[in-house]
Design a protein that fits this description.
- By secondary structure, the protein is an alpha/beta fold.
- The chain has one domain: Rossmann fold (3-Layer(aba) Sandwich), CATH 3.40.50.720.
- 44% of the residues lie in helices and 15% in strands.
- It is built from 7 helices and 7 strands, in the order E-H-E-H-E-H-E-H-E-H-E-H-H-E.
- It has a 7-stranded parallel β-sheet, sandwiched between helices.
- The chain is globular, with a radius of gyration of 17 Å.
- The two termini are 26 Å apart.
Length: 244
């Protein structure tokens, strides 16, 4: 995989799970990384330390993706520090599990605020601020292609961001910017909120016979951020161990 030296990246939700693995991978490949976090500064600073201890450049920055003003301020600060933005990874997501009858308007609003409004805020700001030739990777879920009991609200909210990203790929293509969606299958993170018996059922349905690990997803994201993926855009890449 080619170096990302002299590239500047933002990873939204970059302090945990898939986002953490992605921040570390991009940093170790040479990118300067802004590690976005919602509330856990200690975790984000730990990611920064891992990158800087290896000789890289990184800083942590707090952001609530549902707040359009704050998202804009994050882009301002990254450009002020790094001079540009070449790679944007949106790994922010709010989990939700349970039958539709068990959800409330409040739980709906919470999920939509991050997964739909947040996707709009990040992607619309990206459209205005990313450098020519940049890379945009939006994280969705395999659940938008494979309906599952109790995952309807989550999958529906993530599908919104998928279509924003794929539409954006057409809008930014003339500037040489690629935009792709990565849709992980069930991945071993704190966002995996299904009952244990359902998780075991998913493992049994997965040809590779296990849950995904954050590094499995981060390696695909890092590929998409690099020069090798220059001819790949407008794709929804299923990274799921073969379950679909």
């Amino acid at each position: 995989m080619s170096t990302l030296k002299n590239k500047a990246a933002i990873v939204f939700a970059g302090s945990r799970g898939i986002g953490r693995a992605t921040s570390e991978r991009l940093g170790l490949l040479g990118a300067a990384v802004a590690v976005g976090y919602s509330s856990n500064k200690t975790a984000a600073d730990g990611v920064v330390k891992k990158i800087t201890d290896a000789g890289g450049t990184a800083f942590s920055i707090q952001v609530d993706v549902s707040d359009a003003h704050r998202v804009g301020k994050v882009f301002d600060e990254v450009i002020q520090r790094f001079g540009k933005i070449d790679v944007v990874v949106n790994a922010a997501g709010a989990s939700a599990f349970g039958p539709l009858a068990a959800h409330t308007v409040e739980s709906f609003d919470k999920v939509i605020a991050v997964n739909a409004r947040g996707a709009f805020n990040v992607l619309s700001e990206t459209a205005r601020r990313i450098s020519d030739g940049g890379r945009v990777i939006h994280i969705s879920t395999a659940g938008t292609k494979m309906p599952m009991y109790g995952a309807g609200l989550y999958a529906a909210s993530k599908a919104f961001g998928e279509h924003l990203a794929l539409g954006l790929s057409k809008e930014l293509a003339a500037r040489g910017v690629t935009v792709n969606v990565v849709s992980p299958g069930s991945t071993d993170t704190d966002g995996l909120v299904m009952p244990k018996e359902q998780i075991q059922a998913i493992i049994g349905m997965t040809p590779l016979g296990r849950l995904g690990q954050p590094a499995d997803i981060a390696d695909v994201i890092a590929f998409l951020a690099g020069d090798e993926a220059r001819w790949l855009t407008s794709q929804n890449i299923q990274v799921n161990g073969g379950i679909l």
